[in-house]
Design brief:
heterodimer; A: 296 residues; alpha/beta; 4-stranded antiparallel sheet; 11 helices; B: 268 residues; 68% helix
């Protein structure tokens, strides 16, 4: 076996709704076994991307390949399963009946008892779905997604609307499932979830990937500081060449330098230029997230 | 791929066991769960099993002792008509259940499984037909227990016709189910079915209606099934107008449901 195809390969993916471009030429490759967070604010295009990835929506342009095939192929063979934000459940079935019924839709599944156990809902197997809490229903959706033992698990904002305890229980169930080799892609707008669970974070804004890296890399992006000073006619090239500088931005008379080493920039500005009103502010993950994911 | 070291196979240990489901996901087990699910719903049971039986006791029994022109009992005429009614309510509501499942988002959930849309519809039709059969059997049992006596061939032929004829209403249910994205679609379908049953001559003989009404009634979807189901009793022979009525309405609802179904499942 040579050249295993990527678990997910999105190329030039585009989707518009009337005048709104929800997904704008998005490219993404995910290798088998990666755990990837798809992070972005509400309306960034996460759900639309996930819908196209699963074959629930047709792209206006671009392609989706899952394990080298179409989403429909992957669904038919049970290679991909998903926990959707809005996926419905039948209220008048019990938890166990829902799992058993869904199991019959696949060619091959894990035992019902096993997925109930792994999703942490074995104790409420006989409860009607309509009487389950939001968190329990979400874990039922997770149990359903575990049935085919998928190679790719997609979770679209799986903990939206859950309380803190529900979120913790849900992620515990996901962690407990950490079968080596399963590719996981989850969309979220919770930074802490991306931070705690993903190996790789893909930041998305206005339907485009704005940052993509390991959790550590994204954290480094966020770890820097901003040095701001008033300096008419600042020489951007010189500033950008200073060690540790990530970016230089000029806004009118002000210059903003994003840097990993604010001391070097401050020293340079105060000793080699006419800069005044110098300010140094630190950025946290949240600032980086906001900076990267909101329109300039 | 040939046999490789265990460490190299961990990325896809079950690749060989991956296959689509047999029959596109249609199975007797799912049908069983579906039927249990419907029978658990007291409202449904009331409308498809209890009400038609009560109608017979209320409106059929007082006619006891009266005979049709051929000497067979009027109660048999009423019982067969109400069996058709029971079957049509049962099959329509089972078909219309797709509206609820679409409204709840279950259909969307199913699209993430290998279940073929055609297998989903086949399950709904099969569930509808099982319920329809149950409706006919309950009505006939109540009739027999109340003293309806008819030749054996009339029981069998009328029962089978009432049951198989209700396929047209399974199609009607699916048609409405794909038309209306409402969770409570039966709330307006219930009264609509009662009116259709009235026009179809299930509650009273069409002779009692004004002449113009009678002519219109012959083109409504219940008329044909009612006529055909009662034919073994009345001995009127094969009524080609009734056959035409059933054929036309089955085609209309069936094709309409198929068209909406295709639109629904290709909508992306």
């Amino acid at each position: 076996m040579t050249d295993t195809p990527p678990a997910v390969e999105l190329a030039g993916l585009t989707k518009t709704f009337g005048p709104v471009t929800a997904v704008d030429g998005l490219d993404l490759r995910i290798a088998p076994g990666e755990v990837v967070a798809f992070l972005g604010p509400n309306g960034a295009g996460k759900t639309t991307t996930v819908d196209m990835l699963l074959g629930l929506a047709r792209p206006d342009a671009g392609t989706v390949r899952l394990f080298g095939g179409t989403p429909a192929d992957a669904v038919r063979l049970g290679r991909v399963a998903a926990v959707m934000q809005t996926g419905g459940l039948l209220k008048d079935l019990t938890v166990a009946e829902t799992v058993r019924m869904t199991a019959h839709f696949y060619g091959h599944t894990r035992p019902a008892a096993e997925v109930l156990e792994r999703a942490g809902i074995a104790d409420i197997a006989d409860r009607p779905v309509g009487k389950c809490s939001g968190g329990q229903q979400q874990r039922l959706r997770f149990a359903l997604a575990l049935l085919p033992d998928p190679d790719l698990m997609v979770l679209d904002e799986p903990t939206t609307g859950m309380d803190v305890e529900g979120r913790r229980d849900f992620w515990q169930a996901i962690r407990a499932d950490a079968r080596s080799g399963r590719t996981v892609l989850f969309a979220t707008h919770y930074l802490d979830e991306a931070d705690a669970y993903a190996d790789r974070i893909v930041l998305i804004r206005q339907g485009r990937v704005v940052a993509d890296g390991t959790t550590a890399e994204i954290k480094n992006l966020a770890a820097g500081r901003v040095v701001r000073a008033t300096l008419p006619g600042a020489d951007q090239a010189v500033l950008a060449a200073l060690p540790g500088v990530q970016s230089v931005e000029v806004r009118g008379d002000a210059v903003l330098v994003h840097t990993e080493d604010s001391d070097v920039v401050a020293r340079h500005l105060l000793t080699r230029t006419d800069a005044r009103d110098l300010e140094i502010t630190s950025r946290n993950l949240e600032d980086a997230f906001l900076a990267l994911t909101t329109a300039a | 791929m040939t046999v490789t070291a265990p460490s190299a196979t961990t990325s896809s240990p079950r690749a060989g066991s991956r296959r689509p489901p047999a029959l596109g996901g249609f199975s007797a087990a799912v049908l069983g769960i579906e039927i249990r699910r419907v029978l658990r719903n007291r409202r449904t049971l009331l409308f498809i099993l209890v009400m038609p039986a009560v109608f017979f006791l209320l409106f059929g029994l007082p006619q006891r002792g009266q005979n049709l022109d051929n000497g067979l009992p009027v109660t048999g005429w009423i019982m067969i008509s109400l069996a058709v009614y029971a079957a049509m309510v049962a099959t329509t509501s089972a078909g219309a259940a797709v509206a609820t499942e679409r409204a709840l988002g279950w259909s969307r959930q199913l699209r993430l499984t290998p279940l073929r849309p055609a297998a989903y519809v086949a399950t709904k039709v099969a569930t509808a037909m099982v319920l329809g059969l149950l409706g006919v059997l309950v009505e006939f049992t109540v009739g027999a227990a109340s003293g309806v006596r008819m030749p054996a061939h009339v029981w069998v032929e009328s029962g089978l016709t009432a049951w198989i004829g209700s396929l047209v209403f399974a199609a009607l249910g699916l048609f409405v189910g794909y038309l209306a994205p409402a969770e409570n679609v039966m709330q307006f379908m219930g009264p609509a079915l009662a009116i259709l049953a009235m026009l179809g001559g299930l509650f009273v003989p069409l002779d009692v209606l004004p002449h113009a009404m009678q002519q219109i009634a012959k083109f409504t979807p219940v008329y044909g099934v009612g006529q055909l189901a009662r034919a073994p009793l009345t001995g009127n022979g094969l009524d080609w107008a009734a056959v035409g009525n059933v054929t036309a309405w089955t085609a209309f609802f069936g094709l309409g449901a198929a068209r909406l179904f295709r639109r629904d499942t290709t909508r992306v």
